[in-house]
Amino acid sequence: MRNVNGGLTVRFTLNGEAVEIRNVPPMERLLDTLRERARVTGTKEGCGEGECGACTVLIDGAPSVACLVPTCQVDGEEVVTVEGLAEDGRLSALQSEFLAAGGAQCGICTPGFLVAARALLDANASPTRAEIREGLAGNLCRCTGYQKIVDGVERAAEQERAGDAG
Predict the structure, then answer these.
(1) Among 68, 84, 100, residue at a domain's last position
(2) Is 110 found in the same domain as 51?
(3) pTM for this structure?
(4) Which of 27, 48, 104, 159 has its CA 20 to 30 A from that of 153?
(5) Comparing C-alpha atoms, which of 98, 99, 95, 107 is closest to residue 46?
(6) Which domain range does residue 58 map to?
(7) How far apart, in Å, are the Cα atoms of 151 and each of 72, 76, 109, 116, 137?
């Protein structure tokens, strides 16, 4: 990371691709960098205070709220957004099952839930319903009520396990 014309140059991996973002103000939020500079707009802003989880991304595999992370902190790191969950340009099992269960309504919280669910399933391929709820506890939804979201994650876990077995 180096300072150029009052801003920083930040290099990181974004959804599997190396990126270099120049002239980043020292405290610019990762959320803004993703949406405005990298033009990766799947990550949404909900509250802007780290409370709702709508802007959840994975930073080196750990779920993080992008509205609270200065972009300079991801220099050299791997960042995955909801766009990075797709497989060969097609929805992943997680995304497909989430939609099939009716877990997406207005869409503001959906990317954050999907990314948080990905982190959960990467850590625990066979979560119980209680573990799914706990893994998604940092994400808020005002539309679906959570049951459909939990159903979608549970179905995705089953499908992913069946795919690994076959």
Answers:
(1) 84
(2) no
(3) 0.92
(4) 48
(5) 107
(6) 2-84
(7) 37, 36, 16, 15, 15
Query: Do 131 and 156 share a domain, yes or no?
Result: yes
Q: Do residues 59 and 123 both lie within one domain?
A: no
CATH number at residue 68: 3.10.20.30
Would you list the DSSP string of 134-160? HHTTT---SSS-SHHHHHHHHHHHHHH
Are both 68 and 18 inside the same structural domain? yes
Among 140, 86, 132, 89, smallest CA distance to 110 is for 140
Query: How many domains would you assign to the chain?
Result: 2
Tokens of 63: 């779920």
- At 165 the pLDDT is 66
pLDDT at residue 16 in the model: 97
Residue 11 CA neighbour count, 13 Å, CB half: 5
pLDDT in tens, 96-147: 999 999 988 888 999 999 999 999 999 999 999 999 999 999 999 888 779 9
CA angle 31, 50, 66 (to 5 degrees): 20
Q: What is the pLDDT of residues 24-66, one digit of tens each?
A: 999 999 999 999 999 999 999 999 999 999 999 999 999 999 9
